[in-house]
Amino acid sequence: MSNPSNPKNPWLEAGPFRYVPGYINGRRQPCMIVAVKPTPQLIKALSSENAELSNRLDSFFNWWNERLYATATAKTTKPSADWSSLANHLAAGTTQVLRYLGLPLLDEVQVATPRAADEASQQWTSITLPLPHCEPGLVLDAWQLLLQVLSQTLQTKKLPEPLFRKQLDKLSEEKQHSISPLLLKAAYDLDLPVTPLKGIMTQFGHGRQSTWLEHTFTENSANLSVRIARNKHDTAIRLRQMCLPVAHHHEVANVNEALQAAQALGYPVVVKPVALDGGVGVAANLANQQEVHAAYAIAQKQSPRVLIEKHVAGRDYRLTVLDGEMIWAVERIPAGVVGDGQHSIEQLIAKENLTDQRRPGLQQTLKPLAINSEARQLLQSSNLQPQSVPAKGQFVALRRTANVANGGRPKVVTEQVHPDNAALAIRATQALRLDLTGVDLIIPDISRSWREPGNHGVVCEINAQPDLGSTTAAHLYPMVLKKRVTGSGRIPIIALLGAPSDELTTQVVAALQAKGLQSIGWSGHHRAGINDVTLSTNGKTFAHSMMLLTDQSVDALVLNVYDDELLKRGLPADKIAWLVLAGSTLSATQPNPRLFQHLTGMLVPACQQVAIIEEARLNIEGLNNAAGDTNFQTLTTAQLLQALER
Hints:
- By secondary structure, the chain is α+β, with helices and mostly antiparallel strands.
- It contains 20 helices and 28 strands.
- Strand 23 and strand 24 (533-536) form a beta hairpin.
- Helix 9 (255-265) crosses helix 10.
- The relative contact order is 0.09.
């Protein structure tokens, strides 16, 4: 997105921004600190209570709230009251975009405006925005979207609906490259540490207690198994080797082969790309050559390799398997509408798309319905048109397949699944040596065994990276995390502040080893390592902390904080077990009481226990006043080491 800052903009000027990957001021998420200031023209208009500007700002934020399905921001003040209230509306409006995208926010925004109103146009107003462990550019683009649209509104006196929609769609696409919001919320609810690695690959927990996930790919998702699962042809071969039921099919290279295969299998047939998930390019229940020809053209655009498969009559079910157990099952009902005898199909679609589950926003769990070429073919085969009024209770299908990604709706059937069918899904998962799958079954009745005459079913597909879903299965995300993260996901972190050398670091490492912890990571003055092995001599505290917290052998972490880097980068973790204040300055070579004070103020809110080394002779009363309810212990070095050993 282009930077909204424009020297010719008569109203707002966007300033520098800073991404803080760690945790500051007791925050539970990273943050993005942005800057903005009003032009003298805007300050003058606000101070003179310009009625036209006031109405324009009020109208804009009302429009903004409506478009994002949000409640009004800053209810106690109007955005046109003064610069401070407008700045708060800008901050709140940005977080509304993040919530619209489904991202869970744990922290409030912080707005720091100049103390004097007449300085607002000369000094930057700083706004701290929560960054919910997503790609930093997503938060920055949300901020820039608001400034860009508001600036254009103020200049043109028109609400720029096309620009807003275009940029919001880009943000929705950009979100796909960040961690799943449902997985992220589950981690927050479980109080697990979250560390973004690359794209959607994320670490949950620290050190030995941690695990990696890429959406629902786990550390146990073997590459060989995933490659087989992503190839429908190879999957079918493997399942046949295990004597499991699959539909007959042929892989084809051109449309003539597709027509010949359909003829050999016998109609109806299914056309599907060989190596795509989510129902992309799949057309089912095709009854003639014309339909196969059209479906092949669509599938071939998605994949050069296409399968022609015998259509199996039955209902579409997704059974979720985790670690050899079927944990959830849904019937997937194709996208469609139910007639009421009064409204047309078009009207019913529009009405359905206005529901919270369909319309974009925080509560959306289903894709909006739409009439495309496939829907028109289905309507035509039923002698219907988009303007037709279906009878009350009549279901009108708009898609041949029931994938939720194509607008389908899931219906929970976990309790109705026959044990033989659950065993079939488990066996299919084990056939590919996967730990977490979504097994798609086509069967007339899920409550009866697939072995019964008249109820034969087939394994249609195995998804190695299943979308667990949000409509019915949001509870599965914490279940997966609990299965993969060890314990609380946290390891002991001890921060030392004011230690003039690494002597105390070495002593603390030895105390933790005496407690029974085997692998202690440590970061000292310009070096870091594990136990007695130095691994790095050219990094700083934050980088060294990330190295050790993402090392799965580490049982505990000891940090000797010796410079101001953490003030810029933030703390490496949102919670620290111990803060040890070992002196009133950072070191003998760099005495800096003020820097020490700033670091103490940042570290204390994140700490569970604070110990003051008796020899440090710190102003305990002053620290207590700064830290509020935090309790301090005054200990000798020997007492501290004894406490850590317990």
